[in-house]
């Protein structure tokens, strides 16, 4: 069954969150959240126009997304609002996940890097 997309454009990722919500993300910072399995969508302010390529839900319910221009977006409220961060080198990031120690691992154009989630946005 096809779902009604929240906008006409390219998507590069989808995440199921701990509370059952769904996030879709993609081109030019497009980011949408659905609380009803895609029947309706709400635009989420991404605070960037960088294309978002990958991400994951973290153990504490936070959400991390990664994209072009070294973009890291972090939500501490289940994907309703995101904090914008950028790596110092500005290289594209294609994926992000949490390691067993709780740090955020990102990979992309410049290889792999690790960030302490607790220090992002604090």
How would you concisely characterize the structure shown here?
0% of the residues lie in helices and 43% in strands. The protein is mainly beta and 122 residues long.
Please name the defining characteristics of this protein.
122 residues; 4-stranded antiparallel sheet; single chain; 0% helix; mainly beta; globular
Shape: globular
Q: Roughly how many Å is the radius of gyration?
A: 14 Å
Strand order of the largest sheet: 1-2-3-4
Q: Helical residue percent?
A: under 10%
The total of helices stands at: 0
| Contiguous runs where pLDDT drops below 50 for at least 5 residues | none
Structural class: mainly beta
N-to-C SSE string, H for helix and E for strand:
EEEEEEEEEEE
Number of DSSP strand runs: 11
Determine the mean pLDDT.
91
Beta-strand level of the residues, as a percent range?
35-45%
Q: Which sheet architecture does the biggest sheet show?
A: 4 strands, antiparallel
N- and C-termini, Cα separation:
42 Å
Can you describe what's shown?
The structure is a single chain. With 122 residues, the protein is mainly beta. The chain has no helices and 11 strands. The mean pLDDT is 91. The termini are far apart. The strands form 3 sheets. The chain has a 4-stranded antiparallel β-sheet with strand order 1-2-3-4, with no helix packed on it. The chain has a 4-stranded antiparallel β-sheet with strand order 5-6-7-8, with no helix packed on it. A 3-stranded antiparallel β-sheet has the order 9-10-11, with no helix packed on it.
């Amino acid at each position: 069954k096809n779902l009604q997309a929240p906008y006409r454009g390219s998507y590069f990722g989808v995440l199921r969150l701990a509370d059952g919500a769904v996030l879709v993300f993609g081109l030019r910072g497009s980011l949408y959240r659905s609380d009803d399995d895609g029947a309706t969508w709400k635009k989420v302010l991404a605070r960037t126009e960088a294309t978002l390529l990958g991400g994951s839900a973290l153990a504490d319910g936070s959400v991390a997304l990664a994209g072009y221009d070294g973009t890291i977006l972090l939500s501490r409220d289940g994907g309703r609002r995101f904090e914008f961060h950028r790596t110092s080198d500005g290289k594209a990031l294609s994926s992000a996940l949490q390691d067993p120690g709780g740090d955020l691992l990102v990979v992309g154009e410049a290889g792999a890097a690790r960030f302490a989630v607790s220090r992002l946005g604090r």
